[in-house]
């Protein structure tokens, strides 16, 4: 189990009301496609402030969660964190969705001793994921892994070889082969760290297999049916998916 650590040292600015920054949680998922929040417009330049600033805790997350907004004031990235462990996990949502969809998983892994983070997509999907990583790292975690569903999984795989520090591992549920950050296919990535891709046989399995490594069967788990992304948890294969996730993520930080 991850070890506890000293109090976080995240520098926060003024408290802002969440309603001014984020609409209601929810939305559909784009499946194979690219953008994180369904918005393709470039973020507005010179729209201060840019640093992380504390905001009201969203209604969908536990009361002891922390929430910040970072980036341009007119289109910030909202990031929530929970837990107080030395090892961190960033959970990337599906397209059009937010941290709200990951709340049960965030609570479960925080209870196991991790510091966990998730976010709401802005118009710049790659910047959204990078911002969540930066916020998590500012909480003094020693190492972190990326976990993403659908577009979130594709973005995690596509950016894994470009993040500094690099993630300790990447876990993708039903990822598309492409993302706004470029190709998520393992053949196009310089990332060589631990990887696990989980997909359904009847849900664009070709794309999920491309994100896994063809020369390493251990990087891919395929389950029956056509469930996509987080819907995998609600299928008969849900317990297996959760077990493999826990084993993979726990193994990243063992020792």
TrEMBL record:
Q: Which residues form the signal peptide?
A: 1-26
Sorted alphabetically, which keywords does the UniProt record give? Signal
Stretch list, region Disordered? 32-56
Gene3D superfamilies from the UniProt entry:
alpha/beta hydrolase
Q: Where is the composition biased (Low complexity)?
A: 41-52
Q: Does the keyword Signal apply?
A: yes
Q: What is this protein called in UniProt?
A: Alpha/beta hydrolase
Q: Native species of this protein?
A: Cellulomonas cellasea
